[in-house]
Specification:
Helix content: over 70%
Shape: rod-shaped
Number of strands: 0
Number of domains: 2
Radius of gyration: 26 Å
Distance between the termini: 60 Å
Order of helices and strands: HHH
Strand content: under 5%
Amino acid sequence: MGDSGEGLVDAEAKIQERMEELERSRELALRPKVRQPEEARKIESLKLARTDLNRQLEAATHPTRKVQLSNTISEIDRQIAGLSMAI
């Protein structure tokens, strides 16, 4: 009789392993595929810099500084576009 109990425990362990395996595969399927993670990190960094520069531009009062910030934002946009094509 002890053998039948062990069989149930083994079956439950196999079922649990299979459920965990399916959960891992679901998580991987939902994760976006990034072929070049370094470029993705650079893009994210540039986006954060752009957000900060936009904040500075909104607060700037001197016309020359506004031009500098606008030019820098344009350059960042150009870099993001170039890196986005690589991903």
